[in-house]
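This entry is retained here.
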Amino acid sequence: MAKAYERIADDLRQRIRAGELKAGERLPAETKLVEQYRKSLPTVRQALGVLQAEGLIEKQHGRGNVVRKPRQLVTRTNERHQREKGRARQSLDKRQETGATELDTGLTTSDLVFSAEYGETEADDDLAQAFSVPVGTRLLERVYRTRYREEEAPFNVSRSRLLYDVAAANPALLDEGNEPWPGGTQSQLHSVDVEVDRVVERVSARPPTAEEAEDLGLTAGVAVMVLRKTCIDTNGRVVEVADVTLPGDRTELKFVTPLDRW
């Protein structure tokens, strides 16, 4: 049986989704909600906390609880990797037409604002194990952020690492000024004769750090998903390790698994 705060949250959630309570509109004061639902103030606040964690409302100074404008949904599917591999050998003009974010969001290239930050780092214990290299191995680290032009926060923050010596075979891969690279990472790797054989992704969820909450524009209570992507080439060598931090209030993970027919 649903608890009292869950029933209150469900009622308010349905009113928001039905458009009865519109984006930017204030919810009734907490004291009014106590009277309306005939429950205690802590119960009402618990219900509001659920809606905040779902990203449906936010608490604004001087205004109280306000219905939040829905953020652009991102649907991330595992089919993206085969699409990216298929594009790696296409012409430059073809690769420039669209990218993974456009496919994930339904937006166009002109709708998006992209940024990339490059730097060198050394493999710590975690990355050394992930790459199967000694601790201290030189890595090229790229931090990517892409946002909808009408929003301030990025869809996610992706921290990608390549083995520096592999990337350095094409000096263009060391220059962040060449971003966004048409075709993405698999196209970059193709430029140094690396073919990705498989991609392994592991996803976990946790509360965001304060920095992540600010960077991703998260309301209190919204969790993040952390996706570790490991790209392995046709020789069994790990060629990329990326940690992608995804906001839980705007990200949908979709897995499509083709099955062999009998």
In short: DSSP finds ten helices and ten strands in the chain. The first helix runs from residue 4 to 17. The first strand starts at residue 57 and ends at 60.
